[in-house]
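## tool: complex_structure
## caller: assistant
## args:
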Amino acid sequence: MKKSLFYSLSAIFFLLPGVLLMLKSVTPVWKWGEAFSFTFTLRGWETFLMDDRIFHALFLSILIALAATFINLAIGMISGKALSHQNFKGKSLIETLLLLPLFLPVMAAALGLHITMIRLGLANTWFGVVLVHLVPTVPYTIKVMKAGYDRLGGGMLEQAQMLGAKPLYIFRTVELPLLMPSIRSAVFLTVTISMSQYVLTAVIGGGSVITLPIIYYPFLQSVDDTVMAAFSTAFALLPIIAVGAVEIVSKLIRANGLVLNRGVK
Amino acid sequence: MEVMKYMKKKLILFSSLVVLSGCAAGSSQPSSNEDVKDQSWDSIKEKAEGETVSLYMWGGDDGINQYIDDWVKPQLLDAYGVRLERIPLDTNEILQKLETEKRAGQDDGTIDMIWMNGENFKRAKESDLLFGPFVEQLPNYNAYYDADSLDFKYDFGTETEGYEAPWGKVQFVFHYDSAKISEPPATLEELQQWTEDNPGKFTYPAAGDFTGDAFLRHVLYGTTSAETLFTEPFSMELADKESAGVWSYLKDIEPNLWRKGDTYPSSLTELDRLYSQGEVWMTMGYNEARGEVLVKDGVFPESTKSFVLEEPGSIGNTHFLSIPYNSPNKEAALTAIDLLLSPEAQLAKLEPDYWGENTPIDVSKLEEEDRQAFEAVDRGDTVLDQESLMDAFVPEIDAEYVPWLQEKWIDEVASQ
Amino acid sequence: MNKVYFEVKGASKSFKTKSIFQSVSFSLQQKEILSLVGPSGTGKSTLLRSIAGLEPLSSGDLYINGVSMSQKKMKDRPIGMVFQQPLLFPHLTILENVIYGLRLKKKKREAEIEGLRFLQSVGLIDYKDAYPHSLSGGQQQRVALIRALIVKPKLLLLDEPFSNLDPDLRRELRDWVLKLLKQEGMTAIFVTHDREEAMLLGDRVAVLAEGSLQQIGPPRLVYDEPANELVARFYSDALIVDQNHYILNQHLSWSAHPNPADDQLFFEAEWLNDTYQYGQRYAHVKLLKTNRRYVVPLQSDEHAMINGERGFICARKAAIHRFTGREETDE
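## result:
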């Protein structure tokens, strides 16, 4: 009973809008009161594919998102673990400070960082863009990973230490597998946020770094629902595909026996 | 045989070196302003050849994008051997980037050309972000544009002083569904009468939206004496004194607007959507030809037509191309702008297939053949003929009115 | 004399300015089990964690077979530990859990064979492929114990391993653990706050209170001859006469009226209630002077009193003992 409720609710709230959006992206603009007609059109998707830089932009967006995700996970795990398992002076203050970037207007962040990036020689480079994408993502990742380490608890890691395991081995055999749900959320959040950054990418990348949002954000002010639907569908699918890729990689790693199948010296 | 092979290899090596150095040249040695200004057009052309220039411009219209990508790029390569890269970025971000680079003292930038006008030009000029003056170096500008035209001398009240070259011209028009309206209003009074006769079928975007602001300026034009708006610079006292009519007009029509004026569309996109759904019967926009493609794509009804208010008129403005102070390829940028200003490029831009946008060119200066070609362009059913547009044309007013109107609108209309 | 196998010398631990324990010294012989008892919050767990290497000592050192441990990293200390919670790795099967530590030293096959043998010997072989969540709390704690034992540590630390189990299970597991530890010849330190458990499991008992080791010795001896008031109060059952004297509960009796005899002492007390344990009747009374409660053996024909009625705890003067004094070392 409960289960069927869950499934029907998720169908109504998640699946149905998605399906409607996809339908909309291949049918002409429909007007109220007009009879339903299913004329198929690829106009929306043609507009989407119009710019010949799309594949390069797609590649760059994914590269930036994955690099940002990787750095995010590294920072998130280290600080999440410290915040969760260690007590130190000013801990709650630091926790609050870490959230502040989320309340900072993007433009202010972009401005402040741009001058630094110019001095560092990172303005107009893809790596500079990766670094600024950390601003709106790292606070979330730290939160998520801290919650993950809270759930894991310190005892589990101490137990592994007591059995004689080295930190890296513990990381691979205990932390990584048990933190998978948190890692998954962090990856999803980071990829989604990174792939939808327009202002930060525009200012720091300065037009030399053309990601998908740079090409397509201006189109989102369009009144043409068919085009909008195609773009929205593409933007919704990209993070899902990226997360799927991360999932497959983690499956492969597990299948190759990082946990118990390989000899450890 | 051997020699041939060797030569071929050398040639490939050489040409790839040229390409590489072409890319690197930008960052290594940006030409100083003085260098460029003193050069003859021939030496500019010579220096430009083989370079790549970047044109930074808003990228949210596939017609415009296609015009640049499909028409301009090959033409430019053909005419001057210059490659063009179109970088889609909002003008605000472009200026933001330049301002920071200026503060950081970065003299080798990445931007060669910017598409802008109005407030953005004022901001860029006041912050010394632009290279120039340069327009008088452009052969096409000298040959086909009326350098004395107020349209080019002033950009929303800011003197251009040769820091930007006119690229296009648009006029504010209303679009309506001719299946529902047989005789569109021709004055503000008739518009008011029309809303009374057809309650709920008209509205305008809220102030703060680009189009909403432009509509307010039309009302300002219609309720004040036009001369004061031009002859006097913006002052708070004058604005307060002259604007009483604006607010009373807007308050008078409010009860007959869409949703009785309780809410206004927050953007033109929203108003367009209401129009495309038949909720309202009119929409508007700062581009006389923009309805064409929307009708073609089935967003607007087939029966869409446009009109302008003969009284107070239709505000038009010119938009321009400029070169940032730290452009790495100023010579190539000059050649590119010259090409964009050429009669051929302007004619292609006028064709509704691409952009369908009006030209700032002085048609009377053209060769007979070219003039006929311009006159022969069919801009489509939704676009008014050139004569009606010209008759209704009124210029933009001081940019400082824009924020003032926005603020007042919220006090006087939205919060009442 | 027996050879010292494990030794703690002058161990102290403080967090910033707060001292947890100071100058704790004791030693164990091989195969000896020490019960470490004391009121909660006296640093028993911290002492154990410091021995394990989970916390650094502020001063002092540990030796196993004469080798100093304080400079060694945790993974290099031949010390195992079982915590209050079983802390099984939820994503690994029981067998994988058991051989987690062994895998670091042996090849997979060898480790598995040994793991299976262990599971067989403790009767958990049927669960080898199960995941921890499908086991009961007691079973999980058993797995945790053999996971620690299988790597053959030189010293095993048990930090209240039964505290989360219900009393019946606790008793059962206690016997099982004792049997297994003895069978494996394990040297162990067992922390508990349960006196009974301490007596039954420990070859010796150490009482840690107020940051110091108060007394260490055979369970019965410490019970009968507490070194001081703290030990008497926490570990023994004795009436504390004054700073230096005590009377064991077994020497106490109850009387409604003071009995005029020279060799008797009387302490006025208030009757609370009475209970039977295995046929013996006890009075639960409250000493007026200190408001402390005592359990006094009663003659079965003694009249029951009403809650709140006054009477006297009496004892022969000969039953008064002097505290044996603080024991610093145990030789």
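## assistant note: Chain B has 20 helices and eleven strands. The longest helix of chain B spans residues 2-28. Handing back to user.
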